[in-house]
Amino acid sequence: MDRRRDSRRTHVLGPLLVTLLGSFVFSTTWSFVSPGAATSTATIADAQGVQVQASALRGISLPSVGKASAQVAGGSSFWMLACAAGIAAAVAGLGRFQKQSPRMRAYGKVAVNAGQTALDQLRTMTTVVADTGILEDIKKFRPQDATTNPSLVLKALSGPDAKAYFDKAIAWSKSAGTNFKPGSDELVTDICDRLAVLLGCDILKVVPGVVSTEVDARLSFDAEAMVAKGRYLSQLYQEQGYGKDRVLIKLASTWEAMDACKRLENEGIHTNMTLVLSLPQAIAAAEAGATLISPFVGRILDWHKKAQGRDFTPEEDPGVLSVREIFAYYKKYGYDTIVMGASFRSAPEVLALSGCDKMTISPAILGDLEGLHVNVQRRLSEDGPHNANRLEDGDLDEDRFRWHLNENPMATELLASGIRAFGVDGKKLEDLVRVRLQGSR
After folding, report:
1. What is the structure's pLDDT at 324?
2. Residue that is last in its domain, among 69, 100, 131
3. Same-domain pairing of 154 and 233
4. Residue 113 domain flag
5. For 68-93, what is each residue's pLDDT tens digit?
6. Cα–Cα distance for residue pair 117/376, rounded to 1 Å
7. How far is it, in rounded angstroms, from Cα 392 to Cα 116?
8. Which of 108, 265, 341, 400 could lock 359 by a disulfide, CB 3.0 to 4.6 Å apart?
């Protein structure tokens, strides 16, 4: 924030000061070049009866009072023009600053608070979750829960502790008596699962709540495979001493995932339905009995910015509005599924959803919130009022789910691209495991 304030001062005060300084230097130089300018003050003083020292005027021919007055008027006019130019430059600088700083405009109507940080205030309205697998960041911001995905797991296992994780996962797989062929795809997949669980276990040593671990995105259209993977991940956590109450199994919100969600929840395995980009997905997840959904904010904003070629304020942000719509629908119709906003792009986006059940936030934005001193007002409340009309009479079946999703090009495109991206990072992790396995032979 301090850097942004300095930037604004530079844009506004810089042109003004430079212009005034330049006019002063020019005027001073003019006083030596123009005899009339040098004697104007002395002549006026003489005309008013003030004694003028001859030494100050030696060798200078005094002009008439009228001439001096004209020169003074000319000097005053110059100064007025200089000041006007400085002010104009300052205004132009402010305009440039505002154009270059849309994030600052988002804070423009928020009252400054010298007391609690925005993050501290947010904690009183919303359960704060860390969207990271980096343990040092989790320790720093002290969230209640943490979420991971294939991309975050890959990032966490590319750090300085990577070797220890890989060695432990490989040894754990061997000790389990899996009997997979050395270097086989089955062995690689098993080690990847154990890596994700080992990272999740270390996170659970830090957070008091739950951790989310995601099923391989490439299984997103196979209900049976997702159920089997969810059971296996839950079993691995239990082997490490963490029960079903501490873990959420993440599933990408396809129709097949709704079926898998229902079956896992019936077995006491809690789910986090991710890549929720539309109301129909949110409704289907709630009707399947999901413990929690993760409606994305930033990805929706990105899509609309590209499609419409413009920026959005937090109050008109399509991602923010999507989460508000889902939240209102859940509260009005009595769904118990937790709404956890995800995929944020800025602190103002987060604050526009203050009061949401939970929000999973990246370390960078958590840092922004921690350094921000503004009055945070609750934007979402369970008590309402909630203006929401039923999407369908009765439960949302497969045909209607697919139709509603098809009618939303943004949700259709982003669900597909999100699954692809997580699949790519899952493949990258498998490649790292293969390299480690070759090195351990």
Report:
1. 98
2. 100
3. yes
4. no
5. 444 434 444 544 554 455 444 444 44
6. 9
7. 44
8. 341
Tell me the mean pLDDT in the region 291-309.
98
Number of domains composing the chain: 2
Q: How far apart are CA 380 and CA 297, in angstroms?
A: 15
Domain boundary among 100, 132, 161: 100
pTM score? 0.76
Q: What is the 3-state secondary structure (H, E, C) of the chain?
A: CHHHHHHHHHHHHHHHHHHHHHHHHHHHHHHHHCHHHHHHHHHHHHHCCCCCCHHHHCCCCCCCHHHHHHHHHHHHHHHHHHHHHHHHHHHHHHHHHHHHCHHHHHHCCCCECCCCCHHHHHHCCCEEEEECCCHHHHHHHCCCEEECCHHHHHHHCCCCCHHHHHHHHHHHHHHCCCCCCCCCHHHHHHHHHHHHHHHHHHHHCCCCCCEEEECCHHHCCCHHHHHHHHHHHHHHHHHCCCCHHHEEEEEECCHHHHHHHHHHHHCCCCEEEEEECCHHHHHHHHHCCCCEEEEECHHHHHHHHHHHCCCCCCCCCHHHHHHHHHHHHHHHHCCCCEEEEECCCCHHHHHCCCCCCEEEECHHHHHHHHCCCECCCCCCCCCCCCCCCCCCCCCCCHHHHHHHHHCCHHHHHHHHHHHHHHHHHHHHHHHHHHHHHHHHC
Neighbouring CB atoms inside 10 A of 327's CB total 24
Angle at which helix 2-33 crosses helix 35-47, to 10 degrees, equals 80
Q: Which of 229, 250, 262, 358 is catalytic?
A: 250
Q: Residue 358, exposed/middle/buried by CB under 10 A (0-12, 13-18, 19+)?
A: buried
Structural domain for 273, as ranges: 118-440
Average pLDDT over residues 139-162: 94
Distance CA 380, CA 126 (A): 10
d(CA 97, CA 17): 17
Torsion of CA 431, 435, 436, 441, to 10 degrees: 140
Residue 330 to residue 339: CA distance in whole angstroms: 8
Identify whether 250 is a catalytic site residue: yes
The confidence score (pLDDT) of residue 159 equals: 84
